[in-house]
Every structure is written in structure tokens, then in C-alpha cells.
Design goal:
Chain A is α+β, with helices and mostly antiparallel strands. The radius of gyration of chain A is 32 Å and the shape is globular. The chains are: A alpha+beta, B alpha+beta.
Chain lengths: 663, 154
């Protein structure tokens, strides 16, 4: 049986719950007296505990359990919410996140030491709370009326409910059969009220190594243990006596309505065992492995390629009937492409939601007061980009907190609100997604950058005079550049802006910076909506065909050779009243120039990237096409001016130019 | 126990593809190869190393092609009816090698392969892993990692 399916589900759900923990802990911190976040946190911790317990992840279980204990104390007003408590709960959440990360990478929790944390958690908690959560009420195990009734009657006759948790040895082959033997043994002296997961799941081996049994018996714990000890292949046996208050059960029974508010709450708090949970949360969506989506996307890509081939073959002298069919086919493939692309789109909230926590921690560490405004979190973006964009964004946020926003004192002196503001904004712009990270700090100190660059010999004294503001800002993206005056644990570790830039560019995007002294700075990341199919302009450069992404092209113009002005080695052309640097593609790409005699007129593509414009001279225009981006592979990964390749209708390969590295 | 296993492994036979390159016959472990392709249109890649002829389309995948002649220093690539591109796959790298002709597939035990270091002076024929005698001809076993220059790359 594929236990991996469960691990994957566990990871996915655990991530969601960790997010809930983070979000609501922050809410709790802001508004001290609020039951809603507290309940959310409790639920999340409880579910995490249950899921991790089922899969045998002890560390996560223990941490979640300890968190739950504290939360229970808070709920019962035995502990007051304080900054210290929130801190330790956040710390525990981080630890759980790390453990889940381990599960994701290695399939197990790893060996992280959580003793200190557990100790701290236990200290924060009142000593007698053990009794409350140590012995869960059987009703928290999601029993139905009938089962509760049996227990109720049983307890009246002097029987006791036990929760028996069995972990099979991982080497056990026939887990279902072994579980069956356990059931048989237990039924010798008791009645099985319920199993976790349900019997059917156990029979079909839909459980990890651990399963649970709710047993009603008059025997004690030792009898149960000694009987189970006789069964081989059991790794561990946990027997827990459940407290059961007959009166309370009676009263809730007698109230007769199955939807009393009390019950309702219990039904939602108690998500102990996850197998059946899922059926209850009825949403109209399903989870799909991204690999399956990638596969679908590849097939659509192939379809587009073959459509292009057909258009090429039939291109000349097409009959009107075929022509219509071709247009129809084109519409369908485009529709299919759009649909598949949309399936792959997820709201950028998936990344953004981590950031309030990040900024909170950072501002605490730096003793700054900062508010993070998030706008446009619903903006949708390709799943692959979501996975990649998190780190660059965190880096920019760190940068904003560390270098951008001033300390409250400095801000007051500068006549600003002592509370700094960081804005994180996302929106669509044509075929791009634009993400802005802005702060209202003191802006980027250009002089400081120049000094630093001189110190690190990135530039020479002579260079300084020629640098405009944009050039200076670009120095920040130089590998190894870091302006932090002292090395803090936030930024300034040498891995700097160049990593952000490289990462974004590897996804076909760009980073731009604008800054104003005293007012703050804004980083603008521009990314393609989807990675695998783009619109491109195909151009011919001395018999070779290249593709230029359409989203970077501003205009195509005809110019006459005579308008080209040469300043030292740089050729320029006039464009809308300014001079643009001209790059001859045949030179940039080292193609064989056909002849010395050049045309009077030449075609030029004006490329825009952020504030910068540049003119590329090309040979011939071929036309606009949807192209499927393919990687050049590992072997040629160091060729920077080419970002990939595509297959043309006739099967030939055309290279895609990387505009970022031509400029 | 260990020495017995070692002893055994020396007798494990492996399959090689043999191909001609100028005067010599070379062999490449068949597990490192994916397919053999006829020459199709090669797209030049600017700024690539001089040995890289360009990229080709192999059933929808983009594969770089190296001129093996140029890479091991026996002159310019030559195209003929017999020229073939051997698509290799090694450590995540997929690269095509342009060779003069493909000959056949043969089997050899490790024990039959004499190490290249024993035959050549150091610095000469470093891309050769070993030599094996096959049907009265000497076949040079190619060191693919060296040809792809992985030592210097990562």
C-alpha cells in the first residue's frame, strides 16, 4: 500500500495548519481578547497532533500536544496571553514547520532536538493541566450517538473505555492481518467500539504503522498490555484510560438534539483522526499532483507545436475549407492552453501569507515598528513561480526592514510616523505579473553604494563619473555586494540582491528599483504569467532564426543607416526625441555577416525593460507566434544571452534571446 | 567476503557501442547512451564552447551536440552519409556526440579492459578510460565525464 499518499496529504495539510497557526497567533497578539483566533489555533494544533500521531511522527505530536495544553489553559483563563507565550507558541510552530520540512525532504522527522522547547512549553503551562488533556474525553473522538450510548451504558455497568494505540513494526508485511489479530485478541475480553482509522480503512491497509482502538472492558490496563504482548510484530502499545463523565454524557444525551452548540463545537475541534475528516469538508475542489498538470501542459505544448507545423505545411495556397478548419483548430488549442494555464494558476496569497509573520519577527529583532500592507493577494500566478518566488521576496522584505525602514527615533526626527510601512502589492499587467515591495524608509543611499563598490573594487574611480543613478542602483545586484554596515542576522550575509536578480531572471522576469531619498524605495518584480508557452517575435539574423519574447518588445521601426550616430564605440539611433543604444544582433550573436554592403534601411526592435530602452537591429521579421519554451539543458546552462529554445513548425530549433542579458 | 565480491565484479561483462573516429575505434558504455540519430539540422548556439556544434531537436527535446573530433583534438568535424549523433545521458547531462560512423555493439568484461594510464603517457589521450581488444582491433573506451569536462564544471 502506498503510505506515500498519506505522507503527501499530511504534508499538504500540515502546511495549511501551520499557516493557520501563524496567522492566528499574530491576530491573538494584536487583539488580546478574542476567542475566534484562539479556537482556530487550538483546532490547528489538535489536528496536527492527530495527523502526526497517526503517521507516527513523535516530535510533531509532542510539540502540538504541548501547544494544545497551553492553549487549553488560555481558553480556561488559567494563563493570560502575553508576548512571551505568543513567542514560545510561534517558536513551536517554527519547529513543527521544520519537522514537516524534514518529512517532506527525507520522509521522516529527522533528529531535531525539541527537548528545550518542550520544557519551555511545559513550564509555561499550569501543572495540573495534564489531567485535562492527558486523558481525552471519549466524546472528543467523534463518536456517534450509538457509540456514545454503548459507552454510557457500559460505564454504568462498571466497564471502562480505553484508547489503545498500536504501532506495528515497519517491517510488518501484512499490516491488515496483524491488525485483525489485535482486534481478535482485544475482543476476547472487551468490546471494540471504534477503530481509528475506520475498520474498512484498516482492512484495506489504508493506514500507516499506527492504528487506534476504542475498547470497552472491565479489565485493567495491565491485562490489555499482557494480552497484546503475546502478539508479534508490534512496535509499541499505548493504553490510555479515558475519563468519562456519565452525568455530562447523560445531560447532553437527554437534551436530545444532535446539534446542540456544545456538540457542534466538539465536532469541529476534534479532528483527531484524519481519514474520515476529509469527507466532511466538502469543497468543490480537488488536489492534483503538479506532475500530472505538468504532463498535461506538455501535451498541450506538443499540440501547439504540431498546429504550427500544419500551418507551415498548408501555409501556401490553402483551400478555404482547410483554412477554416485550421482556424478552428487554432482556436481550440488556444482555448485548451488557456484552460490548462488557468488550472495551474494559484493566488499569490500562498506565498504572501507567510510574510506578516516574517515581518513581525524581523521588526522585533531590529526594534523597529513596522506595518505590512498586503494588496492584491488574490492575484493568480503559475504554480511553478509560486514555489520559486518566496525566497527572493523574503530577501526583499528583509532588506526593507533592515536597510529601508529607520528606527522609531530616527523616523520621529525626520518628521515621519514612528511606525514604518512596508507595502507588498501584486497585480496583473498584460501577460505579466507585477510584484512591488515598497517601504517608506530613508531610501537607498547611492553614495554609500558607490563607496562600497569602490571598496570591493567592483568599479574604478574613473567609472564613478560616468555612472548615472540607475547604474549605481544596478551595482547592488552585483554578486557579493552587501551594504549592511554590520553583519546582522537579517541581511548582509553576502548572499544579496544578485541572488534575487538571478532567481527572477531564471524565471524569465526582471527586477527594477526606484528610490527617493528620505521617502523610501520600491522594488518591482515583473514575471511572466506562465512559464512554458509565450508569445514571441521570430526574427531572422543572417539566416538564423531567433525568438524575442513579445512582452519585452515596445515597437518595431524602420530606420535608415544614415541616422545612426556613433559615439566612441557605441552606436545610437534617435527615438522619440532621445538616443537609444543600438545593438546589432549579428554582432552580439557572432553570426557570419553576409556581406559588407549594408542596406540603406534596417529593421530595429525597440526593447523595454523597466526604465531602460534599447534598440536591436535585426535582419528580417518573420512574425509573431506562440512558442513552447524548452530548456537548453544542463550542459549549456552557462550561456546567458539565450534563455531557452523552441521547436519551429518545420522541426528546426530556434533559440530564445534573454533580453536581460542583452541590455 | 569483500575480496570475493571484488573478484566477481572484475568478471562482470558490460556492453559497449563501438564507433569510428578518424583512424581509431572508440567504445562507449551502452548504459550511458540513449539513442543514435542521423544528422538533422543543427542550430548554432552563440557564445558556446568551440566544440559545441549547436543544438538539435530529438523528438521534442533540445539536445546539444559536441563535435567529438574537435573535442579530443583530431581535427574538424566531418559530415558524411555515415555520420551519426550518439545521444548520451550522464549525471543529468544529455549531450549528443557527433562521430564518423557507428560500428556495432560488443560485450567485454572489466578484466579484459586495460586501463588507459598503463598504455599512454600522462597528458596524452586522457579522454580514454581503457583499451580492449575486440575482433583483432583495439577499441578505446571513452571517458564520457572527461569529454563533457565535468571535472572542471562543477
Amino acid at each position: 500500500m502506498d503510505s506515500n499518499t498519506y505522507i503527501t496529504l499530511f504534508i499538504e495539510e500540515a502546511k495549511e495548519h501551520i499557516q493557520i497557526l501563524n496567522d492566528n497567533l499574530l491576530k491573538l497578539e494584536e487583539t488580546n481578547d478574542n476567542n475566534e483566533p484562539l479556537n482556530e489555533i487550538f483546532r490547528a494544533a489538535h489536528t496536527l497532533k492527530g495527523m502526526a500521531g497517526t503517521l507516527g511522527f513523535e516530535r510533531i505530536t509532542n510539540l502540538a500536544h504541548a501547544m494544545e495544553n497551553i492553549l487549553d489553559e488560555i481558553r480556561n483563563n488559567k494563563i493570560e496571553i502575553s508576548g512571551a507565550i505568543i513567542d514560545i507558541l510561534l517558536e513551536s510552530t517554527d519547529a513543527i514547520e521544520e519537522l514537516v520540512q524534514n518529512v517532506m525532504e527525507f520522509g521522516n522527522e529527522g533528529s531535531k532536538d525539541i527537548k528545550d522547547l518542550l520544557f519551555k512549553l511545559n513550564q509555561s503551562e499550569d501543572s495540573f493541566s495534564d489531567e485535562i488533556s492527558g486523558h481525552p474525553d471519549p466524546r472528543s473522538l467523534e463518536l456517534d450517538e450509538y457509540q456514545l450510548n454503548i459507552i454510557n451504558v457500559g460505564v454504568g455497568q462498571g466497564l471502562s473505555p480505553y484508547l489503545v494505540e498500536i504501532t506495528l513494526k515497519s517491517t510488518c508485511l501484512l499490516k491488515a492481518a496483524r491488525a485483525y489479530i489485535v482486534f481478535q485478541a482485544l475482543e476476547e475480553f472487551g468490546e471494540i467500539i471504534k477503530t481509528f482509522p475506520q475498520v474498512q480503512d484498516i482492512e484495506e491497509e489504508r493506514f500507516e504503522d499506527t492504528f487506534g482502538v476504542l475498547l470497552l472492558t472491565q479489565e485493567g490496563e495491565t491485562t490489555i498490555r499482557s494480552r497484546l504482548d503475546l502478539i508479534s510484530e508490534l512496535q509499541s502499545i499505548k493504553v490510555e484510560k479515558l475519563t468519562y463523565d456519565v452525568d455530562r454524557a447523560d445531560s447532553s444525551d437527554s437534551s436530545d438534539s444532535s446539534e446542540t452548540p456544545d456538540k457542534k463545537r466538539e465536532a469541529t475541534t476534534a479532528k483527531q483522526y484524519t481519514v474520515q475528516d476529509r469527507t466532511r469538508i466538502q469543497t468543490r475542489s480537488i488536489r492534483v499532483d503538479t506532475e500530472k498538470l505538468d504532463n498535461l501542459m506538455n501535451l498541450v505544448s506538443e499540440l501547439i507545436t504540431i498546429k504550427n507545423t500544419l500551418v507551415d505545411i498548408l501555409g501556401e495556397g490553402m483551400e478555404s475549407g482547410i483554412n477554416e478548419s485550421m482556424e478552428y483548430l487554432a482556436r481550440i488549442t488556444n482555448g485548451l492552453h488557456d484552460a490548462v494555464t488557468k488550472v495551474r494558476m494559484v493566488p499569490i496569497e500562498m506565498v504572501f501569507s507567510r510574510f506578516p509573520r516574517v515581518v513581525r519577527d524581523l521588526s522585533k529583532n531590529t526594534n523597529k515598528e513596522i506595518v505590512l500592507d498586503i494588496l492584491g493577494a488574490e492575484t493568480e500566478i503559475d504554480r511553478t513561480i509560486i514555489d520559486e518566488i518566496g525566497d527572493p521576496l523574503i530577501h526583499l522584505l528583509r532588506n526593507a526592514v533592515d536597510h529601508g525602514i529607520e528606527t522609531p527615533d530616527e523616523r520621529v526626527k525626520a518628521g515621519k510616523d514612528p511606525v514604518g510601512r512596508i507595502e507588498l502589492k501584486a497585480h496583473h499587467d498584460g501577460n505579466n505579473v507585477v510584484i512591488l515591495v515598497g517601504d517608506d524608509g530613508h531610501g537607498i543611499d547611492l553614495g554609500n553604494i558607490v563607496n562600497k563598490a569602490l571598496q570591493k573594487s567592483l568599479i574604478s574611480e574613473e567609472d564613478v563619473e560616468h555612472l548615472d543613478d540607475q547604474d549605481i542602483i544596478n551595482l547592488m545586484f552585483h554578486p557579493g555586494f552587501s551594504t549592511a554596515k554590520s553583519i546582522s542576522n537579517i541581511s548582509g550575509r553576502g548572499v544579496g540582491m544578485d541572488v534575487v536578480k538571478t532567481k527572477v531572471e531564471s524565471m524569465g522576469g526582471s527586477v527594477d528599483v526606484s528610490t527617493q531619498e528620505g521617502m523610501g524605495s520600491t522594488f518591482t518584480i515583473r514575471l511572466p504569467l506562465t512559464l512554458s508557452i509565450i508569445q514571441a517575435l521570430l526574427v531572422e539574423v543572417s539566416d538564423e532564426i531567433y525568438a524575442i519574447p513579445l512582452n519585452s518588445i515596445q515597437e518595431i521601426i524602420d530606420i535608415s543607416e544614415s541616422t545612426i550616430k556613433k559615439f566612441e564605440d557605441q552606436e545610437t539611433i534617435p527615438y522619440n526625441g532621445i538616443l537609444l543604444p543600438l545593438i546589432r544582433l549579428e554582432e552580439a550573436l557572432d553570426t557570419d555577416t553576409i556581406s559588407g554592403q549594408q542596406d540603406q534601411n534596417m529593421k530595429v526592435v525597440v526593447i523595454r525593460r523597466g526604465d531602460r530602452q534599447i534598440a536591436l537591429s535585426i535582419g528580417n521579421l518573420i512574425g509573431q507566434q506562440d512558442i513552447v519554451i524548452k530548456s537548453l539543458g544542463k550542459y549549456l546552462s552557462n550561456i546567458r544571452i539565450i534563455s531557452g529554445a523552441t521547436i519551429l513548425g518545420d522541426g528546426r530549433v530556434a533559440l530564445i534571446l534573454d533580453i536581460n542579458h542583452l541590455i | 567476503m569483500g575480496s570475493l565480491n571484488e573478484e566477481k565484479s572484475r568478471f562482470i561483462s558490460r556492453q559497449f557501442i563501438s564507433f569510428g573516429l578518424g583512424e581509431s575505434v572508440y567504445g562507449l558504455d551502452i548504459l550511458m547512451t540513449e539513442s543514435i540519430e542521423r544528422i538533422s539540422k543543427i542550430t548554432r548556439v552563440p557564445k558556446a564552447s568551440e566544440h559545441v556544434l549547436g543544438v538539435i531537436n530529438v523528438r521534442g527535446d533540445i539536445i546539444p551536440v559536441i563535435s567529438l573530433r574537435s573535442r579530443i583534438g583530431i581535427g574538424e568535424e566531418q559530415y558524411s552519409e555515415d555520420s551519426r549523433i550518439i545521444i548520451t545521458s550522464y549525471d543529468g547531462f544529455r549531450v549528443g556526440l557527433l562521430v564518423d560512423r557507428v560500428i556495432n555493439v560488443f560485450t567485454a568484461s572489466d578484466i579484459d579492459i586495460q586501463s588507459g594510464g598503463e598504455v599512454f603517457k600522462s597528458g596524452i589521450n586522457e579522454h580514454v578510460l581503457g583499451i580492449v581488444n575486440q575482433e583483432s582491433a583495439h577499441v578505446l573506451i571513452l571517458d564520457l565525464a572527461r569529454v563533457l569536462d565535468l571535472g572542471g564544471l562543477s
